[in-house]
């Protein structure tokens, strides 16, 4: 019943407190406690080099390592009405938004971009857990619709990275309505015959899991990601029993048939290229770090007019 | 035996007194209490109008969850003829939290699907309090596909606190089941009409209510989260449910302004439970009217219009 679990808050705090000490060149792995040098950690896509724990990664950092040459063009997302319900809890919604915007440097909880991976043109969308727990409101819905429309317009696959604590409660019913809205977006891709690949990252919960995150042609999760509808705490409170170790984690969902694969972040890019190119009927890709594609490409910040693959 | 809600206490006193007088008069024929009892009736009616004329959002939640409120089973048995229940998801089980089957609305065959909460302890447990498990959504998906195949309009009756937060429900992929059910709603080439008859609780409701037209009973609610759940997260205090209910804008009246609800079906004075027959009749008239409004529309038009409605949703906010 209750989408957002309480684990969300401490998580955000830990991300923020790290940000507030930019001079700190070391990050402590919250899983194994190893002190990791920043550069080393970011080179390894925020995966602990000691225990393989997958730490959060921002959409921009993810895109920088996903796209050829780290080059991508962001796709404009139609701005929704600000604070549509004039929501009042202990803090004003616009104030919560400003705090999140300052902390992340982003406008909202999803970033959409076009670019190439292994010389394969794609559209990608990435949800930002550090922005109000990645919660799904009108903007996130608009972003997914914009991503699907862009993919259809350019005849490209859509690769979506999900991460969310659940619904944007401050948008009430309009948050809930993103479930059907984003489902319409997925249907557009389906009808255009375009691949839709979902990468489920930690954590993907609530209405996000129960809509676009579970409607992919291929579902890949990062190791140990929590993926659920109702969070573990809510379930424990309801059934009054302790849940087994690893319940609702990626490997558990793989065992229960909800995922195709669990893939470490460091191997994800190659795998996405391989799968995408096969689904599109393209020859095998040349793997490795490719330079940015040239001319009339996605690197141009102007309107994306790259020809379809 | 009338069940009174906490805010109806003064009403319970007056109605109780009138009842008491009449009982006394029946036992003692010498007594003439009718004038006094009638005066109490009048007072009760006035109070009822006063209370229900300005129900707060939290009180609407209480009315929407009223145990005597008509449930899906009551609507199905009264509105339709030839109701033929169809069971099972052909995969794991039959979910008793979800009723569904073929039926006739007047003479027209339709597919009807709805959450059923149950009416007493035994049936409530059997129905899991109207909280569907994955099998419930998968049964609904199967029935919707059948309706699509045989060109039958689909009617869904929504009355659920939400999806069931249980271990098995998660293991059997309730997220996927809800997502696919929503997708099934949006892919139908036949009319899909939903009526929120009580509680429209989060994803469990959306899975049935991603409809061409959504009607809501006057005091029903539809929300992303229960007021108690919202209060415990945002206020850190589940007792702040009144504030949360206010903030969430979950009433039929607010949702109509937001374009989430297309029609409001008025309830009898004092709520649906005070005159169940009149409520069920009003729902039937709305269903017939909604069904008529789809006459002459082909599958592509129905699908396109439904999707457009959801894509456009949220472009207008509420006034302060
Ligand atoms: Zn580690």
Automatic annotation (TrEMBL), chain A:
Family: Belongs to the AccD/PCCB family.
Chief subcellular location: cytoplasm
Cofactor info, note text: Binds 1 zinc ion per subunit.
Organism of derivation: Pseudaestuariivita atlantica
Region annotation (Disordered) ranges: 290-309
PROSITE patterns, alphabetized: COA_CT_NTER
Pfam families in alphabetical order: Carboxyl_trans, Zn_ribbon_ACC
Positions with a binding annotation for Zn(2+): 29, 32, 48, 51
Subcellular locations according to the entry: Cytoplasm
Family annotation (SUPFAM superfamilies): ClpP/crotonase (SSF52096)
Catalysed conversion reaction: N(6)-carboxybiotinyl-L-lysyl-[protein] + acetyl-CoA = N(6)-biotinyl-L-lysyl-[protein] + malonyl-CoA
Domain CoA carboxyltransferase N-terminal: 25-294
Gene name of the encoded protein: accD
Pathway info: Lipid metabolism; malonyl-CoA biosynthesis; malonyl-CoA from acetyl-CoA: step 1/1
Cofactor(s), names only, from the UniProt record: Zn(2+)
General function of this protein: Component of the acetyl coenzyme A carboxylase (ACC) complex. Biotin carboxylase (BC) catalyzes the carboxylation of biotin on its carrier protein (BCCP) and then the CO(2) group is transferred by the transcarboxylase to acetyl-CoA to form malonyl-CoA.
Membrane-crossing residue ranges in chain numbering: none
Keywords (A to Z) from UniProt: ATP-binding, Cytoplasm, Fatty acid biosynthesis, Fatty acid metabolism, Lipid biosynthesis, Lipid metabolism, Metal-binding, Nucleotide-binding, Transferase, Zinc, Zinc-finger
A GO cellular component entry from the record: acetate CoA-transferase complex
A molecular-function term among this protein's GO annotations: carboxyl- or carbamoyltransferase activity
Zn finger region (C4-type): 29-51
One BP term from GO: fatty acid biosynthetic process
Gene3D superfamilies associated with the record: 2-enoyl-CoA Hydratase, Chain A, domain 1
Protein name (database record): Acetyl-coenzyme A carboxylase carboxyl transferase subunit beta
EC number: 2.1.3.15
Subunit structure of this chain's protein: Acetyl-CoA carboxylase is a heterohexamer composed of biotin carboxyl carrier protein (AccB), biotin carboxylase (AccC) and two subunits each of ACCase subunit alpha (AccA) and ACCase subunit beta (AccD).
From TrEMBL, chain B:
Listed EC numbers: 2.1.3.15
GO cellular component terms listed in the entry, alphabetical order: acetyl-CoA carboxylase complex
Subcellular location: Cytoplasm
Enzymatic class: transferase
GO molecular function: acetyl-CoA carboxylase activity; ATP binding; carboxyl- or carbamoyltransferase activity
CoA carboxyltransferase C-terminal domain location: 39-293
Reaction(s) catalysed (UniProt annotation): N(6)-carboxybiotinyl-L-lysyl-[protein] + acetyl-CoA = N(6)-biotinyl-L-lysyl-[protein] + malonyl-CoA
DNA repair in keyword set: no
Pathway: Lipid metabolism; malonyl-CoA biosynthesis; malonyl-CoA from acetyl-CoA: step 1/1
Gene3D superfamilies: 2-enoyl-CoA Hydratase, Chain A, domain 1
GO biological process, any: malonyl-CoA biosynthetic process
Protein task: Component of the acetyl coenzyme A carboxylase (ACC) complex. First, biotin carboxylase catalyzes the carboxylation of biotin on its carrier protein (BCCP) and then the CO(2) group is transferred by the carboxyltransferase to acetyl-CoA to form malonyl-CoA.
NCBIfam families documented for this protein: accA, AccA_sub, PRK05724.1
Family in the record: Belongs to the AccA family.
HAMAP family in the cross-refs: AcetylCoA_CT_alpha
Protein name: Acetyl-coenzyme A carboxylase carboxyl transferase subunit alpha
């Amino acid at each position: 019943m209750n989408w957002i679990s309480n684990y969300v808050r401490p998580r955000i705090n830990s991300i923020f407190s790290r940000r507030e000490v930019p001079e700190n060149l070391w990050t402590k792995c919250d899983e194994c406690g190893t002190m990791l040098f920043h550069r080393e950690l970011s080179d390894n896509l925020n995966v602990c080099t000691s225990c393989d724990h997958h730490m959060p990664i921002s959409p921009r950092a993810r895109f920088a390592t996903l796209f050829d040459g780290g080059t991508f063009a962001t796709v404009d997302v139609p701005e929704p009405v600000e604070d549509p319900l004039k929501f009042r809890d202990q803090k004003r919604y616009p104030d919560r938004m400003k705090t999140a915007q300052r902390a992340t440097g982003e406008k909202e909880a999803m970033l959409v971009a076009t670019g190439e991976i292994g010389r394969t043109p794609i559209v990608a969308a990435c949800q930002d857990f550090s922005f109000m727990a990645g919660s799904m409101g009108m903007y996130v819905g608009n972003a997914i619709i914009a991503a699907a429309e862009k993919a259809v317009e350019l005849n490209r696959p859509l690769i979506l990275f999900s991460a969310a604590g659940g619904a944007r409660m401050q948008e009430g019913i309009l948050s809930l309505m993103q479930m059907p809205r984003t489902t319409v977006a997925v249907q557009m891709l389906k009808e255009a015959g375009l691949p839709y690949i979902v990468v489920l990252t930690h954590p993907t919960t609530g209405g996000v899991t129960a809509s676009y995150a579970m409607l992919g042609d291929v579902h890949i999760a990062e190791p140990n990601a929590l993926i659920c509808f109702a969070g573990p705490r809510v379930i424990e409170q309801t059934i009054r029993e302790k849940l087994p170790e690893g319940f609702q984690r990626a490997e558990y969902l793989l065992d229960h048939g909800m995922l195709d694969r669990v893939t470490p972040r460091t191997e994800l890019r190659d795998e996405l290229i391989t799968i995408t190119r096969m689904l599109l009927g393209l020859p095998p890709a040349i793997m490795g770090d490719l330079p940015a594609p040239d001319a009339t490409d996605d690197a141009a910040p102007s309107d994306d007019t790259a020809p379809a693959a | 035996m009338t069940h009174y809600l906490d805010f109806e206490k003064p009403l319970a006193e007056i109605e109780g007194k009138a009842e008491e007088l009449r009982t006394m008069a029946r036992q003692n024929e010498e007594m003439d209490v009718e004038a006094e009892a009638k005066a109490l009736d009048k007072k009760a009616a006035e109070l009822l109008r006063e209370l229900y004329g300005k129900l707060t959002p939290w009180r609407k939640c209480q009315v929407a969850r009223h145990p005597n409120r008509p449930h899906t089973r009551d609507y199905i048995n009264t509105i339709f003829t030839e109701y033929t229940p169809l069971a099972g998801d052909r995969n794991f089980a039959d979910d008793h939290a979800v009723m569904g089957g073929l039926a006739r609305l007047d003479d027209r065959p339709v597919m009807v699907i709805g959450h059923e909460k149950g009416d007493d302890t035994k049936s409530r447990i059997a129905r899991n309090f109207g909280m569907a498990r994955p099998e419930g959504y998968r049964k609904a998906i199967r029935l919707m596909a059948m309706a699509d195949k045989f060109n039958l309009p689909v009617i869904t009756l929504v009355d659920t606190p939400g999806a069931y937060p249980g271990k098995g429900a998660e293991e059997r992929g309730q997220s996927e089941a809800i997502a696919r059910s929503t997708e099934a709603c949006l892919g139908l080439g036949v009319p899909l009409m939903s009526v929120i008859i009580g509680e429209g609780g989060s994803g469990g409701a959306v899975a049935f209510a991603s409809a061409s037209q959504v009607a809501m009973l006057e005091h029903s609610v539809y929300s992303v989260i229960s007021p108690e759940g919202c209060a415990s997260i945002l206020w850190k205090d589940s007792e702040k449910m009144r504030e949360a209910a206010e903030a969430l804008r979950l009433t039929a009246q607010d949702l109509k302004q937001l374009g989430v609800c297309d029609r409001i079906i008025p309830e009898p004075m004092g709520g649906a439970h005070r005159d169940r027959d009149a409520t069920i009749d009003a729902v039937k008239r709305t269903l017939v009217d909604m069904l008529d409004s789809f006459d002459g529309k082909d599958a592509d038009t129905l699908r396109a219009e439904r999707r457009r409605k959801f894509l456009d949703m949220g472009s207008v906010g509420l006034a302060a």
